[in-house]
Amino acid sequence: MNPHRVFNFNPGPATIPTEVMEQARDQFLDYQGCGMGIMECSHRGREFNQVRESAEENLRQLMGISDDYAVLFLQGGASLQFSMVPMNLASGQQPLLYADTGSWAAKAVKEAKLFAPVQVVYSGKAQNYARIEDCESWEMGADDPGYLYVCSNNTIFGTQFHRFPEYPEIPLVADMSSDIASRLVDVNRFGLIFAGAQKNLGPAGVTIVIIRKDLAARSRDKVPTMLKYSTHIEKESCFNTPPTFSIYMVGLVLEWIKKRGGIAGVEADNDHKAALLYRAIDEGDFYRGTVDPACRSKMNATFRLPDESLEAEFIRQATAAGLVGLKGHRSVGGIRASIYNAMPAAGVETLIEFMREFAKANG
Amino acid sequence: MNPHRVFNFNPGPATIPTEVMEQARDQFLDYQGCGMGIMECSHRGREFNQVRESAEENLRQLMGISDDYAVLFLQGGASLQFSMVPMNLASGQQPLLYADTGSWAAKAVKEAKLFAPVQVVYSGKAQNYARIEDCESWEMGADDPGYLYVCSNNTIFGTQFHRFPEYPEIPLVADMSSDIASRLVDVNRFGLIFAGAQKNLGPAGVTIVIIRKDLAARSRDKVPTMLKYSTHIEKESCFNTPPTFSIYMVGLVLEWIKKRGGIAGVEADNDHKAALLYRAIDEGDFYRGTVDPACRSKMNATFRLPDESLEAEFIRQATAAGLVGLKGHRSVGGIRASIYNAMPAAGVETLIEFMREFAKANG
Question: Does residue B241 share a domain with residue B124?
């Protein structure tokens, strides 16, 4: 019997491709005939080594990551990176530049201030984060900054950078937690990219860090061993026991991406899904997108209904119809459909059908 | 068809009870009929909330943890705790006291020195860590120390504290990564207990922290948010996305412990397994235990054979016989059998049978 599966629009932890879940289930107790589940294998043994190496190799190939960069599998989520980035990359005197495009960037700013002077070069706050202004208008006057920090996609407000800042002389740091591997980016334009895996790449519990090796060398001696990027580069993410099962799941998801034509393949699918959904939002007066169309996220589509009681009813009926996780973030309300790599087009089509019927019945 | 399962003596990640693995596999794609795997559920949703709350409640009940203590599920392993403990508990002036019973304690000392003066009150180094001297002989003269730190079980050397230091006026901090929930301890005697889950409680990727709440209040303002215990106490381990699947697995293992008579039940089994194995080591001249019998670990039994080439052959033949993970830590060599909670008595009995035959053939 096939397991019951809903369309899961949760913002993260999020849906994982059913065929990846089946593969993990089928070898759960016995990984490739070794007589142990992969989560029971030593992190220094042959089985897990292959899993880790192959995950790294696939990520390098898919994203076009050169040998100038290290690829790390760490713990603590993006939230720990909010501290690790300035802890390792700040010299103490150089100002750190941050673009405030919503809650996540604001949290990153708070941590950075513990380590160095911070300059917020842009804030979307006055516009309630409904758009991201082009970087030409940012206040970039700081002298010799340590880096420029952006959050590439804001899951709460539903905005996304469609063009990244271009200041080749300043290392660009990006929190790509909610859109890594969903579209092609030129990694060479970044100094450091980090992302929790639990949206586009697998389960919670592992954080991907892609760091230009020369930046990792900046860390000062007084940084604790586990919080130094150089520790994990030197030990290939095995300084201590890594989150082996989560890394294994990321590996399976990367194989799945390869089979779909790589990141160009999933990007085409993501463009298609987002276009369908935003068209449905825009097609009448019942639904109202919350974001400037030019800045809309292809990962998290946010919209409102005529009133809050209708929104509650929308969520209730959608859940009953097997469309779950559509409630907007508690800080902003409304509806949010998270349509990451693993959301099939059929999920978006079913949602759109539901939206049309709901609008007809309640409009 | 039953999956092929070996007896897995790995030191961690380690064997997980087969019935727990089966349970996790059976609901892998559809957790309790919700249409999603638990790893795809929101960390703020009903399903995962119940998982986390029930895991905490079971751990409290099994270990007898009072409301004076918080129970946290964090990331980063024991190695991150090596830094978090002094980062949060040191005042900067008070000396921190450490007992050096081998590699792990030594690594903890290194991190603590970044935050405060450290006094090593005992070191087993001169005896090659083959025993742990009673705490009455320790150099406890420091004035107003911040805490006293021990590692309750050393996985590499195979030693274990069978009696903890008694200095009621000094908060006792214990790294119990390799023997938590394997024996009854009086939690009230500790200020802070931490443990990576991947030996006795589940998979890698989640760290249990049991902390007396008044100690958590010591943290200074400049500690990064994610590295403050108070952050995670306030947000019940959900300040950011926790490692949900690993916590779920810990929950299943705790239910399994309950069914076996709680910690008293698994402790009786562990005593029995260790007694059998050490008797087999001691019964002739072929095997030689490496640790003072009074300090032997009930979790990791370490022993040598007459020469290294025999040890290599022992490991080769054992592996072929379905007894895996018996190689000693690379820093010390020899044989190590890790017999945590989830190792069935049948595994130890099969190992002993193999040892007897191997000794007869090669003695």
Answer: yes
